[in-house]
Amino acid sequence: AEIFYFSLTDEMTREDKLAWFAETGFRDIPFDRVTPDKKHNWINLTDNDFDQLLPLIDKEVKAGKSEKAIFKLFSAGVKTQRDDWVYDFSRENLEKKVRHMIKAYMHRLNTGDRLDLDMKWDRETEKYLMRNIRKNLTKKSFCISSYRPFTKKNFYFDRHFNGMIYQSFDVFPSSNFFNLLINFTTGQRTGFSTLATPSLTDLNFYVIEPVQYAPLYR
Predict the structure, then answer these.
(1) Pairing of the two strands 181-184 and 194-197
(2) What pTM value is reported for the model?
(3) What Å distances lie between residue 104 and 78, 113, 119, CA to CA?
(4) What are the percentages of helix, strand and coil residues in the chain, rounded to 5?
């Protein structure tokens, strides 16, 4: 396809533009022929310096292969795979659920049997059983998490009972560690969105699209 482009100046009023179109024939419009670049961009090519800007995050920087990014570390939010067991608005209720979860886990570890009211099992917890990893309730694992935008919940932050933690322990090494996160979506399913939080975020923070975050400290 061939692209020909023409734009009136922004200084012209609405009336001036309508008058111009009324008085100018199509053959008389001074089009510019535009050749798209390798990425098929053709709008504002002369002003497009996007590829030269310093990226916010970059996988090469995260892997230690480059220094050209604002943040050296970024991560997806925590994917618990058992929200009902590790989140609650009530700190007291959450501790009750966690105690039962640990009891169910240790009961199966010791006997091989499941309790009547059991926890949610997945491939990772099955591996922990095979490795004979023993668990106790840890008070310092209780913290506040940004579960959804403007919605915080009490959270039990534990690498064995949270399905996928990604880089979260590098960002919050302890429950009382202060950090700030810039949470954002990639915009693949929804429009781009960003929100800063002072606490760890859930992977489904934005519900429809998984969240990524860049931390102030690492």
Answers:
(1) antiparallel
(2) 0.73
(3) 23, 9, 7
(4) 30, 20, 50
